[in-house]
Design goal:
alpha+beta, four-stranded antiparallel beta sheet
Length: 397
Amino acid sequence: MYNTSVEIFNRYMETNDANKLDKGIETLNNAIVLKPELPENYSLLGMLQESKGDTAAAIQSYEKYASMQSKAIALAKEKGIYLNMLRDKATDVLGQPYSSKNTKSMSGDSMMVEAIRTGSDTVYLYSVQKDKTGAVVEGWRVSPPATWTLSEKERYASLNLRPYNQLGTLYYNKKNYDKALQYIDVISTLRPADEQAQNLKVQIYQDQGKLDEALASLAELVRNDPKNKIFIANYAQALLRQERYDDAIAQYEKAMQIDADYDVALYNCAAALKNRAAIVQREEREKRDKDPKYKENELRYFPLLTKSAEYFDRYRRLPSHKDDLTAIEHMVNIYETVREKAKLKQTITEIETLEFSNSKNPRYWDILGGVYARGNQTDRADKAFKKADELRRAAKQ
């Protein structure tokens, strides 16, 4: 019945047929009658109800899921385990498994279910290995009901962040900030690097006029764990939201000292440096506007821009971000400003090599058109902008 409900929901997503939602809810409620202690029932029920527009019912279902996962969350807080951490690191903390079962997913990934005794609890750890970097944790159960069969306990079950995300957002929209923070904190526990959750958390404190409290809390996390790049980056992000660019840059660079390839720190530090440079550049232009004889001191902000371009480039050289158009666009803008002709030419060439993978992306052609226009290549700019317009029109048809 649960799997049937999943299929019904998938068909609804394909067809947008609202009648399927009622059938999915009916089928899933039957599953809940048979096995009310299965948390996954309630996360799926919440999705069905939310898709139907019944927000109140969805909140109840999501909260039921959250309450049933309380032991799993408590274990995460106590032991410091989280989603997507390496399986080997998790077993170092929890203890070595006394049983293990391996299966293959439909996509060919290796899925592992391990039973571990931790104190008085039995923890079933669920991990997946998608490549050679090692298995990563996708969820765990803590002492499932004794009435369950072994196969039920060993059924692979990921921990679902969606209920917490939705509850945090829904309660924030209702201005119930305490409830929102309760669920956002769970996300921060299960996925410490979740930037969206951290931003919402800071926004709530800001709405409450308690931003200093948020900053103090984040700073305390860094003090207690000064080698934790995620905590440092979260603190930096909060500083960045306050436009404390110099402080944010310093924190991001601390994170990069721990991990030179930390993508979050590389990108955000580059953005912070560029924003800081824009402020200094504006100050210089205001001086020039007031005094026509004043010569703009480019040395005040050129080094900031050069450093920004370096970080954007390092970010873009990471395999997972090699085709990031936003980073490349920032680099072009910087090289144009600081008049780095050789690097500008090289970067434009690299943009042009991305045409095959972006041929249907209007944003790509807009970026390329802007580059050509600023380089006085009018014909090529017109062709690129025309291509972008054509793609947008085709998408609307």
